[in-house]
Structure to design on (256 residues):
């Protein structure tokens, strides 16, 4: 034990350690705040946390779980991009190769899929927890709006990923989803007011989503771009803003 304490003391006396942790360990409120603010890894965290916020039964860590699942999906998604090509002649074959040929490919693809399902579940439960504890009330209304937008983006991430395997399940799921878009008021050619506004099959929301009037190569490419680039970037930016607003609004809200 003495040897360990000696090594720790020597480590904390080095110039490298002092350059990172500049305020030592003197246990004062000011120094604790300085330790947090001046450290690149800690400055994102609040200096003080209310007692109720650290109880797992209050938040169930649902926001943090969602964020870490998003990070896992990002990493596994990038790895899957090395093997997958969004081409109608190759997409399904690439999925089969991932499942049966690529080392650990089955684990990679399956874990990515189940992590996607898990993210939808954790986001929904996170929204439910926020609603039941009244955490959407003043001054947190704007952050609630950000949360709703992130919920929609989570659904869109799951939806766009469905088509990428280019199998029967994905094909018919996208068919049903885009046909719902065709019946949307104003924006869909089958919806109310479409004829009045000149909305037709070749210029409505369904056409924009599919890149044509039917599911084909442009549809797969658009789903791939939105799933791998567009929606993750937007989601990441909104998450940063969401976390920042939690800090600005005084941290985790108190119980009702």
């Amino acid at each position: 034990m003495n040897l360990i304490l000696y090594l720790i003391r020597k480590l904390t006396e080095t110039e490298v350690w002092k350059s990172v942790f500049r305020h030592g360990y003197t246990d004062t409120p000011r120094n604790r705040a300085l330790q947090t603010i001046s450290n690149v890894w800690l400055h994102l965290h609040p200096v003080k946390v209310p007692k109720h916020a650290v109880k797992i039964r209050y938040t169930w860590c649902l926001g943090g779980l969602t964020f870490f699942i998003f990070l896992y999906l990002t990493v596994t998604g990038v790895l899957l991009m090395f093997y997958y090509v969004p081409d109608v002649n190759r997409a399904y074959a690439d999925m089969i190769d991932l499942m049966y040929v690529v080392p650990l490919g089955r684990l990679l693809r399956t874990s990515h899929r189940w992590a996607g399902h898990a993210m939808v579940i954790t986001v929904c439960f996170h929204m439910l927890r926020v609603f039941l504890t009244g955490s959407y009330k003043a001054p947190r209304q704007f952050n609630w709006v950000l949360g709703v937008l992130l919920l929609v983006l989570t659904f869109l991430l799951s939806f766009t990923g469905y088509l990428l395997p280019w199998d029967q399940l994905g094909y018919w799921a996208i068919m049903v989803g885009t046909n719902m878009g065709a019946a949307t008021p104003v924006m869909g050619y089958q919806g109310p007011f479409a004829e009045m506004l000149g909305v037709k099959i070749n210029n409505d929301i369904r056409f924009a989503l599919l890149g044509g009037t039917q599911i084909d190569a442009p549809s797969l490419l658009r789903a791939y771009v939105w799933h791998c680039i567009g929606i993750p970037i937007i989601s990441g930016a909104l998450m940063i803003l969401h976390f920042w607003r939690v800090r600005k609004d005084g941290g985790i809200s108190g119980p009702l």
The chain is about 65% helix and 0% strand. The radius of gyration is 24 Å.
